[in-house]
Amino acid sequence: MWKWKKGNKRSGEDDAGGSAGAPPWKRQAVDSSSEDNPDGIVVCEVSKNKRISVRNWNGNVMVDFREFFVKEGKQLPTKKGISLSMDQWKILRDHIEEIDEAVKEYSA
Q1: What is the pLDDT along the chain (108 residues), one digit of tens a residue?
Q2: Can you tell me the distance from the alpha carbon of 57 to that of 80, in angstroms, rounded to the nearest whole number?
Q3: Taking the complete model, does pTM exceed 0.70, yes or no?
């Protein structure tokens, strides 16, 4: 199994997001209302700590299903979630009826 070694960097990484060699998910959390996510639109809150939002990330529109946690009064995203590109979102959207039918079969 691959292990992260102190001081290792993946290709193209820099120290701007946190301490040297820290994996991306261990770097300082970013508040969802910060300037890194100015176009984020919360579409709905599924539960207290889960929400679906649409945001612009690296010039790409993403549909983001994400879990959040509260730290120092701010809601911050966790790594628990999934971001769908527009192509992936369109595939999911086109299969919603089939998914709904499968859910009905299991919940009956």
Answers
A1: 555 555 554 444 444 444 455 444 443 444 444 434 444 788 899 999 999 999 998 999 999 999 999 999 998 999 999 999 999 999 999 999 999 999 999 997
A2: 17
A3: no
